[in-house]
Amino acid sequence: MTAVAADLALQMNGVRKVxxxxxxxxxxxxxxxxxxxxxxxxxxxxxxxxxxTTLCSIAGGLLTPTEGAVIVAGQDISQYSAKQLTGFRRExxxxxxxxxxxxxxxxxxxxxxxxxEIGPRTGRRARERADQLLGELxxxxxxxxxxxxxxxxxxxxxxxxxxxxxxxxxxxFDEPTSALDTRLGDQVVNLIRHEMKSRGTAAIIVxxxxxxxxxxxxxxxxxxxxxxxxxxxxx
Amino acid sequence: MKLAxxxxxxxxxxxxxxxxxxxxxxxxxxxxxxxxxxxVAGSTGALRAxxxxxxxxxSTSQESLVRSRITPAVRHEVEKSAGAxxxxxxxxxxxxxxxxxxxxxxxxxxxxxxYELAPRGLPNAVPAxxxxxxxxxxxxxxVKEGSTVRLGPARTPVRxxxxxxxxxYSLQGTLWGSLGTWREVLAANRPGExxxxxxxxxxxxxxxxxxxxKEAAMIDRATNGATKTLTVPxxxxxxxxxxxxxxxxxxIIGITIVIAVVVVGLxxxxxxxxxxxxxxxxxxxxxxxxxxxxxxxxxxxxxxxxASAVGAASSLALAAAIxxxxxxxxxxxxxxxTSTAYLLIAALLGCAFSLRRVLGVDPAAxxxxxx
Lengths: 235, 371
What we know:
The complex is a heterodimer of chains A (about 240) and B (about 375).
Chain A: E1 8-21, E2 24-37, E3 41-45, H1 52-59, E4 67-72, E5 75-76, H2 82-92, E6 93-96, H3 108-117, H4 124-136, H5 152-164, E7 170-174, H6 182-199, E8 202-207, E9 218-223, E10 226-228
Parallel strand pairs in A: 3-8, 3-9, 6-7, 7-8
Antiparallel strand pairs in A: 1-2, 1-4, 4-5, 9-10
Helix pairs in contact in A: 3-4, 3-5, 5-6
Chain B: H1 2-10, H2 12-48, E1 54-58, H3 72-82, E2 86-98, E3 108-115, E4 131-135, E5 148-151, E6 156-164, E7 173-178, H4 179-189, E8 202-206, H5 212-222, E9 227-231, H6 232-238, H7 242-274, H8 276-284, H9 289-321, H10 333-360
Helix pairs in contact in B: 1-9, 2-7, 2-9, 2-10, 3-5, 7-10, 9-10
């Protein structure tokens, strides 16, 4: 039985993920133990193919682990069904994807409101939250613009706003600066840190860009599916 | 759902081709249906206009008015069997009519009916000898109230005293007079088919009971097999060519609906393939497959409704543009609504092709990891 710590946003214990490729097995994660505090920002660093994305997907309920326990804000999601994971993703986590992936025919404001529209609607409250987030992200003037009318940095900020719409316990950033130049990358990571810290929200930033790491509270390194986490309670 | 509607509104160009093709299919469906309705209406109006529920033919007639003869003795048996029901004689003859204003060789094909029980749309009183009511389709041939129409080779004159609607027979305009007028015209123009005094071609029986087919069997037993009694719908189906027309048109309509299913299926399957990336992201942030598929369905239904509206408007325009009496085409609201309903069902079926693909979108793909 896994002990659940109430003040942790994420707790992964002995997580193993094995993919079947033809007759052989590929171990993507091998006994990962990782904890993230309730308002902690962790940079997850590692080379390509090391298992960063798989770890992030399991933490966000996109994949289920082959073995081990995954507890997000007190919920053990390791055995959740696909339907339960859909609800979990809608309510408890935020994602910012590498390629931003906004809905191209929606305005910035509507891209934030999508999160409300795909679940049980809250209507006016959602609209107020979207306006508040757009204001805080410096996008109030751009709320009516579609992604094609926004700069790369603005699009990234809209994606961050979308990830925060559901007041998540944990936000997962997948290489958030990979498509941005150094100056813009710094600005975006600064913004991520500011937004997470001001809300007390935990975040995992997946990156292979070492420059980002000094914005994080802690750096976890992953190589060949094994995590070296200096802050992990389990090792 | 809002997402699906916004896409329709903001990217109408993506849906224009599918909407245009579906609108053409809708028009084809409605025109085919309209032609079928027009043909059937033009062939069966005289029988549908009858106020009775049963038509009694002589047993040797093979359910054909022309071949049928009911003698006074048989009529008496029918009247006894029908009891309180009304039994009325009916006669018909197809002739060429000379209408005022037409040249001497420019004959208008008509069917003269002699009746006792007034068909729908006519007063109960049977017109006097030599007077007839005319089907309103004959107005396009120049027939007016007060016109004298000369029937057949004998040019027997009848005077038109009014009109009734939707009473065409064998795609010809009809004239409605007394049985006496019919006998006189028949004797003058078809001496070989002359009907003696009291002889009718058929009988129209108004039984006023729910189970008319049971009553039909009773009448045929009472006449000892001298009659063949049909309900009006059976008599309509027995008209030469009517059921064949319906079968052929319904098969073409069925194939058109199958084409609509394929068009919707292919179009939305393609759109779904294009959206796999977007669906991955939406699933990753918590959209269920059901929500996404409902969006596809909604778009298909909206596109189909727009296409059906265009098809229906075009059908109505076509019906208005076709000169009366030239092509048997009618655009009825029931046909337009039925065609729209078929297309909506086709759209739902077509979308089913996309369901598997929507279900198969892996949210993990959005982040670059797949199961």
